[in-house]
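so my prof wants the structure for this chain in the tokens format not the other one, which i didnt know existed until like an hour ago. anyway here's the sequence
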Amino acid sequence: MSEKLRVGILGGTGMVGQRFIALLEDHPWFEVTTIAASPRSAGRTYEEAVEGRWKMDTPMPEALKKLVVMNVNEVEAVASQVDFVFSAVDMSKDEIRKIEEDYARTETPVVSNNSAHRWTPDVPMMVPEINPEHMEVIEAQRKRLGTRRGFVAVKPNCSIQSYAPVLTAWKEFEPVEVVATTYQAISGAGKTFQDWPEMVGNVIPYIGGEEEKSEREPLRIWGEVRDGAIVPANGPVITCQCIRVPVLNGHTAAVFVKFAKKPTKEQLIGKLREFSGEPQRLRLPSAPKQFIQYLEEDNRPQVALDVDFEKGMGVSVGRLREDTVYDYKFVGLSHNTVRGAAGGAVLCAELLKAHGYIEKK
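here's what i got, hopefully its the right format
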């Protein structure tokens, strides 16, 4: 029997579910043994369920083509097959909150890509390099749920990955005010250009709910654990605009920052290049060796050249310069479906396993 942990993918037929499956092929710790989706996909092989809709640029793993998809609503049946699950279900927030807690109550840890539990006080929302200590709230959550090993953990919104790590690296200089505009890829909506031809040569200056997430979620990541809950940080103040652009993968951010303690440009670049965290210390399988790279060229970062930095798990930064209104401005880039979605969740699961929160049933 394999020593790898048995993994289920909830919502395995959608774009993020497919990304999980692609990333987990040959993973040293985890093995996908179960795929669950909506009742309309249940009972069909995975190959049949996603026929004509495989959106990854790598082939569907041969080992999973003939795997029969289970009904995601049959919680006990799915949970009996796995050690933990990744959640990428497409439901209403209330339905997601319920079904993820239902899985947790079967003593099955849930690592979710969804936003439904991001503001549940005892659910950790982690960028593993930034706030691994938020795992501590899991014990309070288990008491609330009445579980011994089951819990829910989430990763934050994809749009903040291109600038929240940068601001974290500069924490000692005390950022107090941030203006960010994100230019977000269509895969963030689960689409390709084939699905969404009207995005070719087009820009849409609206993404529902995205600006609120982009302004508020970094504060929760920078918060502290207090009395079994995450208490968000008070600052910096962040205001954001989110724009959909004709790019397949890669969210770019143009950011202006005001500091309480004004650093030099050289200090800021140095902090980016030396920034690392618990995933690097533990050498987790999906951890980038270098979390943030700084690019000196005036025309970088570019999606075409830089989105796959560190296999899509790194953040690229460039165009750092002084500003006439704020102190500094820069451009950041991250891969929205790797670091920003499935890959970020896989790294969270690796961190949770390394700290003993996820283990074999």
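also thought this was worth mentioning. The first helix runs from residue 15 to 24.
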